[in-house]
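Whiteboard transcription, Tuesday session. T.W. wrote the C-alpha coordinates on the left side:
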Protein backbone atom coordinates (compact mmCIF):
# COMPACT_ATOMS: atom_id res chain seq x y z
CA UNK A 1 0.00 0.00 0.00
CA UNK A 2 2.82 2.36 0.91
CA UNK A 3 4.60 1.85 -2.39
CA UNK A 4 1.35 2.47 -4.31
CA UNK A 5 0.82 5.73 -2.44
CA UNK A 6 4.41 6.78 -3.15
CA UNK A 7 3.95 6.02 -6.86
CA UNK A 8 0.74 8.07 -6.93
CA UNK A 9 2.41 11.01 -5.22
CA UNK A 10 5.34 10.82 -7.67
CA UNK A 11 2.88 11.05 -10.54
CA UNK A 12 1.18 14.07 -8.99
CA UNK A 13 4.47 15.83 -8.34
CA UNK A 14 5.68 15.20 -11.88
CA UNK A 15 2.48 16.81 -13.24
CA UNK A 16 1.42 13.75 -15.22
CA UNK A 17 0.85 10.03 -14.68
CA UNK A 18 2.61 8.31 -17.54
CA UNK A 19 1.80 5.15 -19.38
CA UNK A 20 3.63 1.99 -18.37
CA UNK A 21 6.43 2.63 -20.86
CA UNK A 22 7.74 5.43 -18.66
CA UNK A 23 8.06 3.14 -15.67
CA UNK A 24 9.31 0.22 -17.74
CA UNK A 25 12.10 2.27 -19.29
CA UNK A 26 13.01 4.21 -16.18
CA UNK A 27 12.10 7.35 -18.11
CA UNK A 28 11.97 9.61 -15.07
CA UNK A 29 15.23 8.10 -13.85
CA UNK A 30 16.77 8.91 -17.22
CA UNK A 31 15.73 12.55 -16.88
CA UNK A 32 17.29 12.66 -13.42
CA UNK A 33 20.47 10.79 -14.39
CA UNK A 34 23.64 12.33 -12.94
CA UNK A 35 25.21 11.94 -16.40
CA UNK A 36 22.62 14.20 -18.00
CA UNK A 37 23.94 17.76 -18.42
CA UNK A 38 22.81 20.18 -15.73
CA UNK A 39 21.97 22.77 -18.39
CA UNK A 40 19.50 20.35 -19.97
CA UNK A 41 17.89 19.61 -16.61
CA UNK A 42 17.44 23.33 -15.99
CA UNK A 43 15.37 23.57 -19.16
CA UNK A 44 12.94 20.85 -18.10
CA UNK A 45 10.65 23.15 -16.10
CA UNK A 46 9.81 25.17 -19.22
CA UNK A 47 10.06 22.37 -21.78
CA UNK A 48 8.06 19.75 -19.82
CA UNK A 49 9.64 16.81 -21.63
CA UNK A 50 7.69 14.06 -19.90
CA UNK A 51 4.34 15.63 -20.73
CA UNK A 52 5.42 16.27 -24.34
CA UNK A 53 6.43 12.61 -24.70
CA UNK A 54 3.03 11.56 -23.39
CA UNK A 55 1.15 13.96 -25.69
CA UNK A 56 2.95 12.62 -28.76
CA UNK A 57 2.44 8.98 -27.71
CA UNK A 58 6.09 7.94 -27.70
CA UNK A 59 6.56 4.46 -26.24
CA UNK A 60 9.33 1.99 -25.55
CA UNK A 61 10.80 0.16 -28.51
CA UNK A 62 9.93 2.86 -31.04
CA UNK A 63 12.28 4.31 -33.63
CA UNK A 64 12.18 8.09 -33.30
CA UNK A 65 13.80 11.02 -35.11
CA UNK A 66 15.11 14.21 -33.52
CA UNK A 67 15.16 16.50 -36.57
CA UNK A 68 17.67 19.37 -36.40
CA UNK A 69 18.69 18.16 -32.98
CA UNK A 70 21.35 20.79 -32.25
CA UNK A 71 23.13 19.77 -29.07
CA UNK A 72 20.64 16.99 -28.45
CA UNK A 73 18.35 18.12 -25.63
CA UNK A 74 15.49 16.12 -27.12
CA UNK A 75 17.83 13.38 -28.31
CA UNK A 76 18.48 12.42 -24.69
CA UNK A 77 14.83 12.83 -23.68
CA UNK A 78 13.77 10.55 -26.53
CA UNK A 79 16.49 8.06 -25.63
CA UNK A 80 14.99 7.64 -22.17
CA UNK A 81 11.46 7.39 -23.56
CA UNK A 82 12.08 4.63 -26.13
CA UNK A 83 14.42 2.66 -23.88
CA UNK A 84 17.10 0.11 -24.77
CA UNK A 85 14.90 -1.65 -27.32
CA UNK A 86 14.21 1.60 -29.17
CA UNK A 87 16.33 3.79 -31.42
CA UNK A 88 16.89 7.55 -31.65
CA UNK A 89 18.14 9.04 -34.93
CA UNK A 90 19.61 12.46 -34.12
CA UNK A 91 19.78 14.53 -37.31
CA UNK A 92 21.65 17.77 -37.96
CA UNK A 93 22.83 19.88 -40.84
CA UNK A 94 26.60 20.38 -40.68
CA UNK A 95 26.37 24.17 -40.39
CA UNK A 96 24.17 23.81 -37.31
CA UNK A 97 26.99 21.92 -35.63
CA UNK A 98 29.63 24.40 -36.82
CA UNK A 99 28.19 27.47 -35.09
CA UNK A 100 29.18 28.64 -31.61
CA UNK A 101 32.58 27.04 -31.88
CA UNK A 102 31.13 23.59 -32.48
CA UNK A 103 29.53 23.45 -29.01
CA UNK A 104 26.49 21.50 -30.22
CA UNK A 105 28.71 18.98 -32.01
CA UNK A 106 30.68 18.37 -28.82
CA UNK A 107 27.49 17.96 -26.77
CA UNK A 108 25.85 15.65 -29.30
CA UNK A 109 28.93 13.48 -29.73
CA UNK A 110 29.12 12.98 -25.95
CA UNK A 111 25.47 11.98 -25.78
CA UNK A 112 25.74 9.53 -28.67
CA UNK A 113 28.76 7.91 -27.03
CA UNK A 114 26.98 7.63 -23.67
CA UNK A 115 23.49 6.61 -24.85
CA UNK A 116 23.54 3.20 -26.49
CA UNK A 117 20.33 3.70 -28.50
CA UNK A 118 21.36 6.94 -30.27
CA UNK A 119 22.71 7.28 -33.82
CA UNK A 120 23.76 10.56 -35.44
CA UNK A 121 22.58 11.49 -38.92
CA UNK A 122 24.56 14.30 -40.54
CA UNK A 123 22.53 15.37 -43.54
CA UNK A 124 20.80 18.53 -44.70
CA UNK A 125 17.03 18.26 -44.41
CA UNK A 126 16.43 21.68 -45.95
CA UNK A 127 18.25 24.08 -48.29
CA UNK A 128 18.63 26.82 -45.65
CA UNK A 129 22.18 27.93 -45.01
CA UNK A 130 23.62 30.31 -42.45
CA UNK A 131 23.80 33.83 -43.94
CA UNK A 132 27.45 34.95 -44.33
CA UNK A 133 26.86 38.06 -42.24
CA UNK A 134 26.01 35.86 -39.25
CA UNK A 135 29.06 33.61 -39.55
CA UNK A 136 31.46 35.89 -37.69
CA UNK A 137 28.93 36.65 -34.96
CA UNK A 138 28.25 32.96 -34.36
CA UNK A 139 31.87 31.80 -34.25
CA UNK A 140 31.55 29.26 -37.04
CA UNK A 141 34.09 26.43 -37.12
CA UNK A 142 35.64 25.96 -40.55
CA UNK A 143 35.90 22.50 -42.04
CA UNK A 144 33.99 19.27 -41.48
CA UNK A 145 32.69 18.27 -38.05
CA UNK A 146 34.05 15.01 -36.63
CA UNK A 147 31.24 13.05 -35.01
CA UNK A 148 33.11 9.78 -34.76
CA UNK A 149 31.83 6.34 -35.75
CA UNK A 150 28.28 6.89 -34.50
CA UNK A 151 26.86 8.19 -37.76
CA UNK A 152 24.20 6.63 -39.95
CA UNK A 153 22.61 7.11 -43.39
CA UNK A 154 19.17 8.61 -43.85
CA UNK A 155 18.19 5.92 -46.34
CA UNK A 156 18.37 3.29 -43.59
CA UNK A 157 15.42 4.93 -41.85
CA UNK A 158 13.25 6.26 -44.68
CA UNK A 159 9.73 5.01 -44.02
CA UNK A 160 10.78 3.37 -40.74
CA UNK A 161 10.44 6.13 -38.13
CA UNK A 162 7.46 5.90 -35.77
CA UNK A 163 7.53 9.44 -34.38
CA UNK A 164 9.63 12.52 -35.12
CA UNK A 165 10.18 15.73 -33.17
CA UNK A 166 11.55 19.04 -34.38
CA UNK A 167 11.87 21.58 -31.60
CA UNK A 168 12.44 25.31 -32.15
CA UNK A 169 13.62 24.85 -35.74
CA UNK A 170 10.79 25.55 -38.16
CA UNK A 171 11.10 29.32 -37.73
CA UNK A 172 14.80 29.19 -38.73
CA UNK A 173 14.07 26.95 -41.70
CA UNK A 174 11.63 29.63 -42.88
CA UNK A 175 13.79 32.65 -41.98
CA UNK A 176 16.90 31.31 -43.73
CA UNK A 177 15.23 29.30 -46.51
CA UNK A 178 11.81 30.84 -47.09
CA UNK A 179 8.69 28.78 -47.67
CA UNK A 180 10.69 26.25 -49.70
CA UNK A 181 13.14 25.76 -46.83
CA UNK A 182 10.39 25.18 -44.27
CA UNK A 183 8.42 22.80 -46.47
CA UNK A 184 11.51 20.86 -47.57
CA UNK A 185 12.47 20.27 -43.92
CA UNK A 186 9.00 18.90 -43.22
CA UNK A 187 8.98 16.82 -46.42
CA UNK A 188 12.23 15.11 -45.41
CA UNK A 189 10.70 14.25 -42.05
CA UNK A 190 7.56 13.04 -43.86
CA UNK A 191 9.73 10.69 -45.96
CA UNK A 192 11.42 9.29 -42.86
CA UNK A 193 8.12 8.50 -41.12
CA UNK A 194 6.16 5.30 -41.50
CA UNK A 195 2.66 5.64 -42.97
CA UNK A 196 0.57 6.82 -40.02
CA UNK A 197 3.65 8.17 -38.23
CA UNK A 198 3.56 11.27 -36.04
CA UNK A 199 5.50 14.53 -36.13
CA UNK A 200 5.61 16.84 -33.13
CA UNK A 201 6.45 20.47 -33.92
CA UNK A 202 7.47 22.84 -31.13
CA UNK A 203 8.26 26.48 -31.85
CA UNK A 204 8.24 30.04 -30.54
CA UNK A 205 4.86 31.64 -31.23
CA UNK A 206 4.82 34.75 -33.38
CA UNK A 207 1.83 36.96 -34.13
CA UNK A 208 0.74 38.89 -37.20
CA UNK A 209 2.08 42.41 -37.45
CA UNK A 210 5.40 41.65 -35.79
CA UNK A 211 8.78 41.19 -37.47
CA UNK A 212 8.90 37.50 -36.62
CA UNK A 213 12.09 36.94 -38.59
CA UNK A 214 13.93 39.41 -36.36
CA UNK A 215 12.30 37.91 -33.26
CA UNK A 216 12.98 34.32 -34.38
CA UNK A 217 9.34 33.33 -34.10
CA UNK A 218 6.67 31.95 -36.44
CA UNK A 219 2.90 32.29 -36.61
CA UNK A 220 1.05 29.10 -35.71
CA UNK A 221 -1.16 29.37 -38.79
CA UNK A 222 1.92 29.57 -40.99
CA UNK A 223 3.43 26.48 -39.34
CA UNK A 224 0.21 24.57 -39.94
CA UNK A 225 0.12 25.65 -43.58
CA UNK A 226 3.67 24.40 -44.12
CA UNK A 227 2.75 21.07 -42.51
CA UNK A 228 -0.20 20.68 -44.85
CA UNK A 229 1.93 21.58 -47.89
CA UNK A 230 4.34 18.82 -46.85
CA UNK A 231 1.52 16.27 -46.78
CA UNK A 232 0.71 16.12 -43.07
CA UNK A 233 -2.71 16.12 -41.44
CA UNK A 234 -2.99 18.17 -38.24
CA UNK A 235 -4.19 15.81 -35.54
CA UNK A 236 -4.01 17.84 -32.33
CA UNK A 237 -2.66 20.95 -30.64
CA UNK A 238 -1.65 21.47 -27.03
CA UNK A 239 -1.21 24.53 -24.83
CA UNK A 240 1.18 22.55 -22.65
CA UNK A 241 4.07 24.89 -23.51
CA UNK A 242 2.04 28.10 -23.56
CA UNK A 243 3.31 31.09 -21.60
CA UNK A 244 0.70 33.85 -21.24
CA UNK A 245 3.41 36.11 -19.81
CA UNK A 246 5.09 36.29 -23.24
CA UNK A 247 3.46 39.05 -25.31
CA UNK A 248 5.34 37.94 -28.48
CA UNK A 249 7.11 41.27 -28.98
CA UNK A 250 10.55 40.22 -27.70
CA UNK A 251 13.26 38.12 -29.39
CA UNK A 252 13.10 34.53 -28.24
CA UNK A 253 16.46 34.85 -26.44
CA UNK A 254 15.57 38.04 -24.57
CA UNK A 255 16.84 37.56 -20.98
CA UNK A 256 13.53 38.72 -19.50
CA UNK A 257 11.84 35.63 -20.97
CA UNK A 258 14.18 33.27 -19.12
CA UNK A 259 14.24 30.84 -22.08
CA UNK A 260 10.49 30.40 -21.61
CA UNK A 261 8.72 31.77 -24.67
CA UNK A 262 5.11 31.06 -25.52
CA UNK A 263 5.43 27.89 -27.60
CA UNK A 264 3.14 26.00 -29.92
CA UNK A 265 2.97 22.21 -29.74
CA UNK A 266 1.44 20.62 -32.83
CA UNK A 267 0.85 16.92 -33.44
CA UNK A 268 0.67 16.07 -37.15
CA UNK A 269 0.24 12.69 -38.82
CA UNK A 270 1.51 11.23 -42.08
CA UNK A 271 -1.61 9.68 -43.67
CA UNK A 272 -1.73 5.90 -43.50
CA UNK A 273 -1.87 5.58 -47.25
CA UNK A 274 1.20 7.71 -47.90
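and on the right, the sequence the group agreed on:
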Amino acid sequence: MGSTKQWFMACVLSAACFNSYAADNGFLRALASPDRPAADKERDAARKPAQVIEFLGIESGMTVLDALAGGGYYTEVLSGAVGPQGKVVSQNSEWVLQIRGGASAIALKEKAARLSNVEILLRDFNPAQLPPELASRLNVVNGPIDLGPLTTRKELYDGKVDIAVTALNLHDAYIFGGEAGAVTLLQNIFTALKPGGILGVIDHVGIAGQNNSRLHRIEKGMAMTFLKYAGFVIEAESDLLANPGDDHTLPMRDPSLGRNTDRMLIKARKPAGS
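Someone added at the bottom: The chain is about 40% helix and 20% strand.
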